[in-house]
């Protein structure tokens, strides 16, 4: 597949810079992938499309406050993004404005008042520009970041210096069912759900099941290769428990549909069902879902609108058909839907 087939026209003003006033007040574009029909609804109407016996699969990863600010001892400003642990005491991070930083240098991590919080040793620069640093503390990275960090919003959402209301982003760039810390980007399809919606679906007879996939920064990496098959897909850690697998299999066997909330849930389920049947497993997935790939377990998905030339757009195109997806995206632009992480949602069934 040519990567240029993943391009579409999007006015910049349709890229959502903040969440909807209320989670469930987002708009919902409903695509019937069999006949290509489109319905314009609100996310609060999601229950109209779900049936007794269906199983909604949620990704319960919790987003770390992974963005932070720092400075050199010279006073030069730095900006970091925590990517993960690198051994017992070291962090693996991306570090902006770090061209002059030298291995062995001490950098100063700043709190949200932009005051020095602690020192860290800049240990080693990797070939991709990332760094290993060692903060001068025995506390877990999650605890430190909770004190100094900001929501790791994607580059297309502007928050200079962390923004005017960082607590709003730390709350709203997180699902209401987030539980297991480890993501550096949100599973954004889940952001539209409220406790009330989940409760009403449960009362209706819709099952819910939880999987975990820790979304990595690679999810935003654009495809630069001219052929999609030449793109190196990012890897992400996932876990599907025995209980969850059994619950999802039971729903499927009893005639219910498996409705994945987000491409992250899709990726987890299809990785775990690669042999044709869903089985408990965990590890790192590099599953690359592109048009032509067979889906073994997912019957429907709830998802946001994805970036042009992205692997996530290829995934939804594989599920619904690229022609239907591109028609739906054109409709969404014409109807002024809000796009990307803080934007509106789609239901594809």
> What percentage of amino acids are in beta strands?
25-35%
- Largest sheet at a glance? 9 strands, mixed
Q: What is the total number of structural domains?
A: 2
Low confidence ranges:
none
- Structural class assignment: alpha/beta
Adjacency order of strands in the biggest sheet: 2-1-17-16-14-3-12-13-15
Oligomer: single chain
Polypeptide structure, described:
- It is an enzyme of class 2 (transferase).
- By secondary structure, the protein is of the alpha/beta class.
- It has two domains: 3-63 and 173-348, 3-Layer(aba) Sandwich (QueA-like); 67-149, Beta Barrel (Thrombin, subunit H), CATH 2.40.10.
- Helix content is 20%, strand content 27%.
- A nine-stranded mixed sheet has the order 2-1-17-16-14-3-12-13-15. A six-stranded antiparallel barrel has the order 5-6-7-10-9-8.
- The two termini are 24 Å apart.
Task: Describe the secondary-structure layout.
Layout lengths: L26 E5 L6 E5 L12 E5 L1 E3 L3 E6 L4 E9 L5 E6 L9 E5 L5 E10 L5 E5 L5 H8 L17 H7 L7 E4 L11 H10 L2 E7 L22 E5 L1 H12 L4 E4 L1 H10 L8 E5 L14 E5 L6 H10 L1 H13 L10 E4 L1
Parallel strand pairs: 1-17, 3-12, 3-14, 4-11, 14-16
Antiparallel strand pairs: 1-2, 5-6, 5-8, 6-7, 7-10, 8-9, 9-10, 12-13, 13-15, 16-17
């Amino acid at each position: 597949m040519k990567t240029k087939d993943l391009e579409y026209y999007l006015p910049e003003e349709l890229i959502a810079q903040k969440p909807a006033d209320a989670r469930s007040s987002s708009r919902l574009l409903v695509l019937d992938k069999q006949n290509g029909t489109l319905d314009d609804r609100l996310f609060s109407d999601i229950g109209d499309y779900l049936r007794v016996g269906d199983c909604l699969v949620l990704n319960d990863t919790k987003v770390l406050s992974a963005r932070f600010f720092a400075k050199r001892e010279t006073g030069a400003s730095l900006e970091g993004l925590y990517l993960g642990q690198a051994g017992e005491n070291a962090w693996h991070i991306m570090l902006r404005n770090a061209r002059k930083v030298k291995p062995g240098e001490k950098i100063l991590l700043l709190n949200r008042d932009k005051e020095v919080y602690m020192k860290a040793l800049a240990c080693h620069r990797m070939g991709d520009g990332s760094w290993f640093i060692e903060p001068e503390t025995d506390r877990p990275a999650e605890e430190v970041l909770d004190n100094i960090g900001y929501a790791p919003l994607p580059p297309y959402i502007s928050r200079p210096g962390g923004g005017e209301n960082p607590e709003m982003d730390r709350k709203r760039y997180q699902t209401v069912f987030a539980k297991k810390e480890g993501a550096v980007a949100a599973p954004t399809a889940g952001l539209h759900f409220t406790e009330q919606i989940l409760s009403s679906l449960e009362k209706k007879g819709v099952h819910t099941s939880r999987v975990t996939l820790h979304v990595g920064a690679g999810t935003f990496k654009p495809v630069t290769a001219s052929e999609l098959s030449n793109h190196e897909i990012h890897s992400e850690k996932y876990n599907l428990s025995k209980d969850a697998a059994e619950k999802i299999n039971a729903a499927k066997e009893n005639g219910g549909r498996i409705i994945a909330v987000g491409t992250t849930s899709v990726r987890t389920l299809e990785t775990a069902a690669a042999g044709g049947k869903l089985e408990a497993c965990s590890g790192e997935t590099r599953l690359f879902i592109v048009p032509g790939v067979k889906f073994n377990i997912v019957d429907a998905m709830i998802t946001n609108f994805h970036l042009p030339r992205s692997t996530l757009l290829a995934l939804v195109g594989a599920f619904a058909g690229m022609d239907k997806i591109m028609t739906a995206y054109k409709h969404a632009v014409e109807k002024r839907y809000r796009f990307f992480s803080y934007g509106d949602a789609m239901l594809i069934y």
